[in-house]
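Hi U.,

Before I forget, here's the chain from the pilot set. I'm dumping it here mostly so it's searchable later in email.
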Amino acid sequence: MTTSPTVARDTEQKESGTFEATALRASLTVKSLQTSLEWYRDVVGFIVTERHEREGVLRALSLKAGSVELVLGQDDGAKGADRVKGQGISLNLTTSQGIDETAARIKARGGVLASEPADTPWGARVFRLLDPDGFILVISSERKRK
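Structure:
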């Protein structure tokens, strides 16, 4: 069996001290902090872990769902109040909870799915939804091992 050049290079990098992250915390700039808070908290089920204020004004919120952390930051309008957000990125969240039940709960709370739960060729079950700013959340079951 031969080792591909990419795998060999990755092995060399691992041995020579590659960057090893332990967590990812996404930060999203949103048009309306209040609208996004209500959507992430009340529709999807995140909890608020911290409020970030500056000069007495709420500027951002830290949210958490299980071990996943998000920061929602209020757009200051410096790049244009109506600039498009959410394009070119999707947030993939894996859960051990039932996908169909999670999707049903989100819909019951007023969420609109971009795609209904479906099985994938790689063994996961997924659905998609859009947040108020157009960020795509892909909610996925844990991949089934063969």
